[in-house]
Design a protein that fits this description.
The structure is a homooctamer of 149-residue chains. Chain A is α/β, with parallel strands linked by helices and 149 residues long. Helices cover 48% and strands 16% of the residues of chain A. Chains A and B meet through helix 3, helix 4 and helix 5 of A and helix 3, helix 4 and helix 5 of B. Chains A, B, C, D, E, F, G, H: It comes from Cognatiyoonia koreensis.
């Protein structure tokens, strides 16, 4: 059994690295969005030409990023979505909605203070966790049946 | 041609009423989530029994609300998602993600200051508007081919 | 909004009648399996000829009943599955699995003593209840947003 | 031709080992649920924190196990479901329902005394058998066209 | 519950009339292919122009008939396929294969002498019958739970 | 049997009127794109605000029109696509591709001089015709089995 | 590009061998039903126990064979169905119907005398041929763009 | 992450070679239609026999080519469609429609003078570009997150 895991959401901390490091040796393939914030914002105009208006600047970029994010979500067995402490993060919730509609196993990661506003997202998840280690523990359990010591 | 339209998102202003009033006479059927905030929060425990922890209190309610929201989205031709000025509104973005994954025609409504954080949601939409009247204008045009005077 | 509700499971008590009576006036269409136990057991051989072996006797009947149960589940928005106090009731759990795989909103009804062996079925449900009245309360809430007094 | 086979159901005897041992050398990949009963029951709280109520204790675990079982069923060509002599085994029937709804080739294994209560499950199966060796014989036949001597 | 029933196959006897007559008053909608043999053979060239070769003459007609037959099968809950005593009737078996792949409830009607060559078709059916009355009995049972006296 | 027919393609002649007039009394529901060329071109900016660049002017309009055209194609049983004598008409071929991928019954209407460049589109069609009357003849035949006199 | 090709239909001549031999070196994977006629007829009872009636004897076998044939068809890019000179061959037409409904590229092989009764099957095919060599020529062309010398 | 990219459309310039050359070393698999114009036109009659009428000559060829093009599009993550300066190119727009309906990430390549007639096709695309290098830049960005220097 190989698990394809897509790591969606917050891009300002190293939670993805923590998971992929701790998951070394497991039969897991990880994918994720482009996490270079500037590249992600400007990719559309950098490749397809500048725009005067921010709306179309952003549209060009967001559609280009969608090629990667949709590929990641559609090919995933598990979609992990982390909500950080800051920012609107509507793209994270949007990815969670896509994952739910596509029948993916959804794991949501967030701090307790966001519990209430995330209740609809959590309600679609098979697991709600707070730390990267818990995601790794889940992957280990799903793959091997072993629980953390 | 009948259009089934689901009105998702912000529940603190009367934008849904404005649309349904102005759309009187059009061949449109509207549906929406429960917009009574207290009922929506407490429905789970009111029907299925109290919970000590907020997490499960919210889970019971969110799952019950999901019966209605999924029905609305899955049966819609058009999903309109309004993002208000306040709150996290992750459920709105989650609904937009579901609508996109299910191939629904998505219309997003928000104020200009939210343009950048909503760029991924907007990029999945067939129309991005700011006012209820624009939604009505779109419904009129789609149904009749008539543009606003 | 009309809700199509399929009432699966236990056929020895009048829980279906209780629900349909209490739901009078709601915009709900109910369907259910054939609840005449003898007819359900013997329908296959009654129409298509007797069998010497019980296995094929049952096969003929179960396949005929499947025409009705699949139609009910596939056309339902909500599938309610009640587990009674007695018998194996594997067909009830089978219906719940079909409903889950088809993305139906699943409501499971059972007494507390069955909580542990039903945990996988409950985990796929959007609501777990004990009484017909709770099902009706859910239907009222989903359709109208009103909670029980 | 490679066959992916998911072995669902009873976890108290070594029937899975018998099949995988006897199927050595065949082009078959086997998967199965976690068969360590204690780990399966407690995985949710062990990773995501304790619960006061058994219902939520079980919910957390069952949802975690669903990540593995759904992956197994969705990726299977053949789903084998064994019903043992004891217990309610509603999860086995639930898995069979999912497999049937997803169009998987279903093989059901059980003793003659369970024939009548399992008639709806059997009626959805392409084969009904009693022993692990019969499952292996089927796999050999499907892969090679050879019948048992 | 309304049942949409498509009556496929043999067009030389009045079995369709027998069924629709006997099913009067049931909540059933029947559809069927064009049963006028000459019209069915020549419809393509009659509307779209003559062809020198029989192959293209037949192609034009068969593709036109496919508009109706696919509509009938795709919108059916139940597909009844009757194999008569004569002719190759490959189109009947083709329809049965389509119905099976689309997950329709399949009823096959034929005489005993065709049992062996039809075994693969029968094996995909939920009922195998010999007479129009049996089809009507099945419809009555599925709709009302009543068995023939 | 009701047929939903979407009339796609050329908007400069009255072929749609000819079909709908001649089909009076048939159990057919017709839908079509907005055929007011100016409204179709300018709908986006008229409702959602002007654009400096033609590319985004057109994008806004084309996405709005897509709400209607996708609804029409997705709800159609039959998609008729007419290619006229002039213009690129890539949207007509695009609609035909969508119809083919969605498994709709496709009828293509064009003059003989376009036969070779339309061969891939024709090859996906169940009927290739030259006149509105032929479309009507097909609808009559599909619905009633009657051929033109 | 790898092509998965399922070779369905007539099992009394060596047409499958001719194709697989001539296709050596091409990037093609072939699958097929069990072509040992006796094994195919008796597999069900040989593994799952004898039956008194031919109907159930055949049912057991046909359902077992369906595990293999459905796997082959569902995983195929191209389904080739050969109709021989003799027998009813309804299973061949049934496979063609399944392939058509699943959107597979269908190639039908038969002699000219069967052209008329096979017109509905042919009309669903992307190619109609008479010889194994033509199938190989098609595979070569599809994979390499080369035509026979 | 591997990307499967189908290169559809114009076959008279070397744009496919430019892309595949410049994409060397990337984790991309390219596929494309047969680009030998004569072979593509004549493949049907070369393998399956001559036709008197151009319509059927073309039909035979177009259906054979459809085996390859549908395989390419259905297995692609990204479909790139290039519209050249000349010809009707309706097959290119048809492929774009198929790709859109199948939910593929669509990239459209064309010169500015075709912007207006291609607006519906562009509106379904995640990127609209003019040069092969831009396609390569997009592939590099999607795979690695790196922007062109």
């Amino acid at each position: 059994m190989t698990l394809n895991v897509y790591l969606s959401g917050e891009i300002h901390t190293d939670w993805r690295d923590q998971i992929t490091q701790a998951a070394k040796g497991l039969d897991v393939t990880f994918s994720s969005p482009v996490t270079d914030h500037d590249a992600s914002d400007d990719c559309g105009v950098a490749i397809m030409g500048a725009e005067d208006q921010q709306f179309w600047h952003d549209r060009k970029g967001a559609q280009l990023n969608a090629i990667r994010t949709r590929h990641g979500i559609e090919n995933a067995d598990i979609v992990v979505v982390r909500f950080g402490e800051k920012y609107k993060q509507w793209n994270a919730a949007f990815d969670a909605g896509m994952a739910a509609a596509l029948g993916k196993s959804l794991i949501v990661m967030h701090q307790p203070e966001h519990q209430h506003p995330l209740k609809e997202v959590d309600a679609a998840a098979l697991a709600v966790v707070q730390t990267p280690q818990q995601v790794v523990d889940i992957l280990i359990y799903v793959l091997t049946g072993k629980l953390p010591a």
